[in-house]
Amino acid sequence: MKEKYNYERARNVSIVQALAKLGHFPQKESDKEAWFLSPFRSETQASLKVSKTLNKWYDHGEGIGGNCIDIVAKITTWPIKEVVQLLNGEIIVTSFREYVEEESKNALRVRECRTIQHAALKQYLAYRRIPLTIAHTQLKEIVFQLKQKEYFALGFENDRGGWELRNKYQKLATSPKTVTYHKNNSDKLIVTEGAFDYLSLLTLKPKWITNSDFLILNSLAFVKHQLEQIKMYKELILLLDNDDAGSRFTKLILEEIPNGIDGREYFKGYKDLNEKLQDEFGIRK
């Protein structure tokens, strides 16, 4: 009974106060809500909202949220039992400052954005079978720092200036994270999950770029946020991945937009469009 009581009390601790203890403070605030830079990535525009009236948080960059216990556990990566003890004042933490300083050191920071130059990135594009002529129009080479080390990756920009970063070894994103729209004043919209799906489609069906608008989600978490925009189109083709998540969100969209088409028949037998592209060039094993 005491354990349950402690859990309830911890869950009701003010999220704003808990974040302050962890060194995170609002960028803007009103009587009802507070907006923070996300503790989970580097960003310049606040994307994490805290409702003071509900004492709930929501990270618009990742499409997730919850209560006070959830966010403290996610930030600290501590076991729930220790988070509950902390929020109940049963343990005293003296290393918050060190924790915040360490997180600052580990933050991802973009150092340079340039045309694609590095041989390793060109080799990666060749492996994914994306022609350089297409890559140069859609991607940049991003030099970034992570955990005090410097890396480089292909960068695909979203509508708010954030980057989806890909190289042979890493799959990362900078903040703010959101969708990427390519508009051609069309009544038809094609929706893909990620950048390489879009690039693969441009490689396989280059004429589609002039006949359709494209929505690259960059994360399935943005599906619900885009439904109203998607409904504005007369034609809709969904090219989400052939996996459980892709099937679930395809069904969700088609329930809202019955005239949409599940276009995954085009790459039936493959996980996604890039796998189909690689197979057509004879490199799948």
Tell me the structural class: alpha+beta
Q: Name the CATH class of the largest domain.
A: Alpha Beta
What is the domain total for the residues? Answer: 3
Helix content: 25-40%
Rg, Cα atoms, Å: 22 Å
**Global geometry:** globular
Topology:
Layout: H1 2-11, H2 15-21, E1 28-29, E2 33-36, E3 48-51, E4 56-59, E5 64-66, H3 68-76, H4 80-87, H5 96-106, E6 109-114, H6 119-128, H7 132-138, E7 140-146, E8 149-157, E9 163-166, E10 171-173, E11 180-182, E12 188-192, H8 195-204, H9 208-211, E13 213-216, H10 223-230, E14 235-239, H11 244-256, E15 261-262, H12 273-280
Parallel strand pairs: 12-13, 12-14, 14-15
Antiparallel strand pairs: 1-2, 2-3, 3-4, 4-5, 6-7, 7-8, 8-9, 9-10, 11-13
Keyword list:
5-stranded antiparallel sheet, 285 residues, 15 strands, DNA Primase, Chain A, single chain, 37% helix, alpha+beta, 23% strand, Dna Topoisomerase Vi A Subunit, Chain: A, domain 2, 12 helices, 3 domains
What would you note in describing this structure?
The chain contains 12 helices and 15 strands. The chain has 285 residues and is α+β, with helices and mostly antiparallel strands. It has 3 domains: 2-106, DNA Primase, Chain A (Alpha-Beta Complex), CATH 3.90.580; 108-177; 179-285, 3-Layer(aba) Sandwich (Dna Topoisomerase Vi A Subunit, Chain: A, domain 2), CATH 3.40.1360. A hairpin with a 4-residue loop joins strand 4 (56-59) and strand 5. Helix 3 (68-76) packs across helix 4 (80-87). It starts with a helix and ends in a 5-residue tail after the last helix.
